[in-house]
User: Which sequence fits this backbone?
């Protein structure tokens, strides 16, 4: 499997991500976000509140990072955030669980979509059989006093 496809497949495994933005004072802000959709080209969609701090942050600096973590899988995406006001896309993405944040439902005027256009991504996958192979390599390296070798099966950096 090529590294680009592997990264996209890993992205689709996550339902929550940390969206990292830069605020007006230059500080870094990270907040958990429900992943609304990951497209086959790696674009990530979030649903947010129009007047939220993250929307203010991306209006000043649209370069963002998105990180995802599970027990043995890690993904980091760098890219550009685009606020999108598109009711038909919102209809496509809508999940009833979001009524917790938007009690008026998908017709709420507070809702705004946030599309992340990735430019670069990295992953570390130590799950399943791949993880077992890595553990064997790591154990052997440990006994030999060396660092374990890695390959694109377990980790890679990908230009999107």
Assistant:
């Amino acid at each position: 499997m090529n590294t680009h496809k592997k990264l996209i497949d890993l992205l689709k495994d996550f339902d929550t991500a940390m969206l990292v933005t830069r605020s007006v004072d230059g500080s870094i802000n990270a907040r958990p976000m429900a992943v609304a959709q990951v497209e086959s080209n790696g674009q990530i969609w979030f649903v947010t509140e129009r007047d939220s701090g993250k929307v203010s942050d991306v209006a000043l600096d649209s370069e963002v990072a998105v990180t995802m973590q599970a027990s043995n899988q890690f993904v980091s995406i760098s890219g550009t955030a685009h606020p999108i006001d598109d009711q038909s896309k919102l209809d496509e993405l809508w999940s009833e669980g979001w009524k917790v944040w938007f009690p008026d439902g998908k017709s709420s005027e507070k809702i705004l979509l946030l599309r992340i256009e990735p430019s670069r991504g990295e992953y570390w996958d130590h799950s399943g059989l791949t993880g077992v192979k890595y553990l064997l390599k790591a154990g052997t390296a440990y006994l030999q006093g060396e660092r374990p070798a890695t390959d694109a099966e377990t980790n890679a950096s990908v230009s999107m």
Observations:
- The CA atoms of residues 104 and 110 lie 9 Å apart.
- Strands lie at 16-22, 28-34, 37-38, 44-49, 63-69, 73-84, 111-125, 155-159.
